[in-house]
Amino acid sequence: MKDLSPHALAIRPSPTLALNAQLKARAEAGERVLNLCVGEPDFPMPALAARMAIQAIEDGESRYTDVAGTLALRERIRRKLREENDLDYRTDQIIASTGAKQALYNAFFVLCGEGDEVVVPAPYWVTYPEQVRAVGATPVIATAGRDSEYKLTPALLERHVTPRTKAVVLNNPGNPTGTTYTRGELEAIAEVVLRHDLYVVEDLIYEHFHYGEGKVESIAALGTPLRDRTIVINGVSKSCGMTGWRVGYSAAPARISALMKRLQSQSTSNVTAVAQRAAIGAMDDVPWTALAAYRERSESAYQQLTAIEGVDCPPPTGAFYLFPDISRFLGDGGPATSDEFCTQLLEHTGVGIVPGTAFGSPGNVRISYAAAPGVVAEGLELLQKFVVSL
Ligand code: PMP
Fold this sequence. Notes:
Belongs to the class-I pyridoxal-phosphate-dependent aminotransferase family. Residues 32-371 form the Aminotransferase class I/classII large domain. InterPro entries: Aminotransferase_I/II_large (IPR004839), AspAT/PAT-like (IPR050596), NHTrfase_class1_PyrdxlP-BS (IPR004838), PyrdxlP-dep_Trfase (IPR015424), PyrdxlP-dep_Trfase_major (IPR015421), PyrdxlP-dep_Trfase_small (IPR015422). Keywords: Aminotransferase, Antibiotic biosynthesis, Pyridoxal phosphate, Transferase. By secondary structure, the protein is α/β, with parallel strands linked by helices. It has two domains: 6-44 and 288-389, Aspartate Aminotransferase, domain 1 (Alpha-Beta Complex), CATH 3.90.1150; 47-284, Type I PLP-dependent aspartate aminotransferase-like (Major domain) (Aspartate Aminotransferase, domain 2, 3-Layer(aba) Sandwich). The chain contains 14 helices and twelve strands. The strands form three sheets. A seven-stranded mixed β-sheet has the order 2-8-7-6-5-3-4, with helices on both faces. Strand 6, helix 9 and strand 7 form a beta-alpha-beta unit. The radius of gyration is 21 Å and the shape is globular. The termini are far apart. The structure holds 4'-deoxy-4'-aminopyridoxal-5'-phosphate. 4'-deoxy-4'-aminopyridoxal-5'-phosphate binds next to helix 5.
């Protein structure tokens, strides 16, 4: 038989989703599992979002909507971007998509193709390089170190730009790093972006999980030249505990949004009408109290983790992950790699964490503190015992 598409064959499966499925299977088989791999918060969706969804069903909202989402949803997103991010977009520049994931895919598809390069800072969220490959372009991995808290720096970006570079990905706050770019850092990166005429795909999905000073800044808000080359990605999945509803969105220059909408019109069309109403409710009823509790969670998880001798981790300033360097415990008869470290930890203690190899950073592991606080505390205690036993 003829070979399948090289673009499709180049895509690797999501290691985090595979690991979660494995942990679920173990739990279902009766094993005690402490799942610290989770990529979603544990609080319930906002009550208003649920009520609005029920109302939408009762109102008979079962038809196609505009491909980019109802005007009501796009008006609400527009207001959010203006009030929280100092970003002024028209509603025709905003597209609701099936999760931030589809918004990202639309963005990469429209920006680049065969022969183009996209700079993806590592440690990266697993999906970026795969989506770049899926559209036929090449991800160029720029590995950031501990001294920049695993964040892209202007010098690092500069070193990875070639005449073929089309765009750079910025994830703020970062998954898996748990760290956040300051305005000053964004300004310095922006200078390189402008000089090399790059686009920016800016993923702000963890924006509301922020433990630093002030708010999370968007590079698009640094001025018109930046806004004209940035695709802002966000959604209600993480901040409103609504990962299953699949509502994300993009805001971009009109020319780019028009093409993203055209692509979506030929792939999935609109986000489920009922989910769109739920998203409006969610944005009117953001669970600020539950979100604020994550600051305290991040602090106690960080204290407990860094009390383990030999573990080095940047202080968490965003998202809900800790990304410690565990390379000290590798080799010398112990686990040889972070994959082995995580497999052995799971076998011996039932604690599930993600090896850094999944994120292009083999000396680290990712620990999520979005699980119930008791589970996180016990998981970290077992991690400590495991490390001492090595
Ligand atoms: N961006 C990042 C950095 C993420 O971690 C995730 C979810 N793991 C997404 C986007 C996807 O969000 P959604 O569920 O809205 O597609």
